[in-house]
């Protein structure tokens, strides 16, 4: 329509005769030729004022008539010539509020319809203005106060946060929001959207996407916090079963942990029996003394599955006041515990064992460094730790003889101190090996006791693996390169209600039972034994079917936690490499991850990290390379490392 219109082919039913024509007259292809012999300026001058249209509406509305287009032109313009017929048609065809044009006939609209049309048009105008404000806001590179955004825009912000977290897809977004992302050329790029939300101040640049919607994202409710306060007050009062606890406070024991650890859930001790026989004691915290199955705090712990140790701190399974105070084995005070005793023969095999609820009083709280000194120097007045280390070293060798794999290496981990990422390297040490072996021993005893009493437990297992030959491993040299060749052959650990061998631990059966403050499945182990050993508590052990259902719930929560922990380390690695983007490091090639993409695994010994990097084609395990940052963007979750052959090698 008009002078600048493009030609279109239309069905005849859509054509309206405006000016007379005859078979001898060619149909005009555009305005400006017969019978439209007028120009654009004349058509513009022919337009009527709103008042003139209103007068015509009153006249036509009062009569209630439906008139032909030429008669309508005569009514409003006082002329039926082509110019005024064309002007009338163009106005009516554009959707006039006062009149309706249908099949060449014109009628006046009812008043209610006019009001409805005007209201709808006003809404459209407001919607377009609102949409434009959103485009201006999201397309800007600086933030605006949140209160300036209207409720719809705030809702869209929340949708985008969910989109960045992966909790909804692009297609899940509302139509208007999808349209805005397309217009701004964000489309389905989560990284670009995340970057913009960070720029506008709606996202913490270090907020983890995978934590959204999980129990760790909202902390503990006011009701759960109040319940934790109540349990703290009750902790000093007698609880059911306390009178049957075995008093082991006379036996010396110590706790050994990192200096910053607050939730202390294990202690070790040595009892000297007749004939110089040494008995190992492993004491584990007992949160089930206060946390009953099915209680609000128990259900919340089940939803979490475990505590999360992230770069910026701990997200506990139980409220911190409970996990670090009431449940922890505090030095110098009487603590409720589950205690496992073990007798070993000269080879390290278990000759006798048992477990019970107990009271224990750790003498000292030691750091790993403190414990290493006591093991090394073995002062006569503190000989227990050195003797305990010797016993557990013998036990470790017993497992090695049965196929256990020992792959101790320094382990690097990103920690965030005062907002800055640092690399914290944990070195293997005598005390760390001793504590780890004691925990494995405790899990082995728990499994054997469960089998002996036909008690369903969350057994941990690992399928046998076919490892490289001794000659192949010898050719790789000791350390990370050899361990990488072994690890690629191992299958993922399994958890189920049926006992089975654990390949890499060298055990016929195993059940984790040493961290009930941090792992819900360990708390389940304690409850199963409590129901077995103390049946008068009117609680039956879970049967296999019920336990399996519970383990499936726990496994889902644990997988969520693993995803959060991995993203946390990946993100802070990216932040660290952003701050060291110009550095170069010597690395060793370990193995190929995707050789077709030249993606390999390298060991950065200086940081004790195994990293994925683009590597030279044909790289072999043990090759010395030099690592550098090719690209990194922590907000967009991008890190590209490249390892090249050193020019100096």
Domain unit count: 4
The profile of the biggest β sheet is: 7 strands, mixed
Report strand %.
Answer: 15-25%
Count helical runs.
18
Briefly, what is this?
By secondary structure, the protein is α+β, with helices and mostly antiparallel strands.
Q: Describe it for me?
A:
A seven-stranded mixed sheet has the order 4-11-10-7-6-5-12. A five-stranded antiparallel sheet has the order 19-18-17-20-21. Helix 6 (151-165) crosses helix 8 (190-199), helix 12 packs across helix 13 and helix 13 (383-401) crosses helix 14 (430-452). It folds into four domains: 12-109, no CATH class; 114-203, no CATH class; 215-570, no CATH class; 580-645, OB fold (Dihydrolipoamide Acetyltransferase, E2P) (Beta Barrel), CATH 2.40.50. By secondary structure, the chain is α+β, with helices and mostly antiparallel strands. It has helices spanning 40-45, 50-63, 69-77, 82-93, 111-139, 151-165, 175-183, 190-199, 222-234, 296-304, 320-326, 368-377, 383-401, 430-452, 470-476, 480-487, 520-533, 544-579; strands at 67-68, 99-102, 105-108, 246-247, 253-257, 266-272, 278-285, 308-310, 313-315, 335-344, 350-360, 364-367, 411-417, 420-426, 459-461, 494-496, 584-594, 599-604, 609-614, 624-633, 638-645. The two termini are 76 Å apart. The chain is 39% helix and 19% strand. It has 18 helices and 21 strands. It is elongated, with a radius of gyration of 39 Å.
